[in-house]
Amino acid sequence: MSYTFSQALAALGGAQKAAARGAPAYSRFVNRRLGRVLAAAAAVVGLTPNGVTGISALFTFSGIAVLALAPVGLLQGVTVTVLLVLGYAFDSADGQLARLRGGGSPAGEWLDHVVDSIKVVALPLAVLLALRRTDLSETVLLVPLAAAVVQSVSFFTMILTEQLRRAHGTVPLAASGGAGAWVRTLVAVPTDYGVQCYLFVLLAWPVAFAWGYGVVVVASAGYLLLATVKWYREMRGLGRPSAA
């Protein structure tokens, strides 16, 4: 089916899946809307969801390359931020476009997760390379190393939890109203990948960037710990594993 931009945008408004309960604010209220606009444009020009995933990967990995290789400074930081923000918006657009076209495919979901799995490791390693080119103590390099561990474990645990839910026929909790949902949304802000993208503007001031990035890593580790405890309890309720 062919769309005009306004038709596609209107149709996408009715094809949204429910946001995860307590989803971080930027991802939920900003990035999803940016992705909707990009998905509408992609529908008009006839792009496929996998094509949009490829565009997302191009922006994201270009940003990571600039972070890892370019001279540290304001121009580098702004360039990295713009590329990563666009990559994240297109990452939201591919799923929205798939739903507009009637649903995604296993291959599309696989491709999306593969790109994300590379990103969660490559980005903190690029941060490490950037910080090595500053006058900061080498001890600071432990922060991006910790980020690589935290983000890898977070990504794998989240995907595994989702797959086990599907295998046992349970439905992930959708967004809900009330003060509790808003508290979870605000608490999750430091762990929001979209917010982290904007931190790279601070690369012109390495000390400020290192402190900001450190806060994000500590907050993400704490959030992961709480989420892991919750998910483990949920998994125990799905049934006991069969005896070996």
Indicate the topology:
Elements: H1 5-13, H2 25-45, H3 49-69, H4 74-100, H5 106-132, H6 142-167, H7 179-187, H8 193-199, H9 206-237
Helix pairs in contact: 1-2, 2-4, 3-4, 3-5, 4-8, 5-6, 6-9
Could you walk me through the main structural features you see in this protein, from its secondary elements to its overall organization?
The protein is 73% helix and 0% strand. By secondary structure, it is mostly helical. It has one domain: CDP-alcohol phosphotransferase transmembrane (TM) domain (Four Helix Bundle (Hemerythrin (Met), subunit A), Up-down Bundle). α3 packs parallel to α5. The model has no long low-confidence stretch (mean pLDDT 88).
Question: Can you summarize this structure?
Answer:
The protein is an all-alpha fold and 244 residues long. It has helices spanning 5-13, 25-45, 49-69, 74-100, 106-132, 142-167, 179-187, 193-199, 206-237. 30% of the residues are buried.
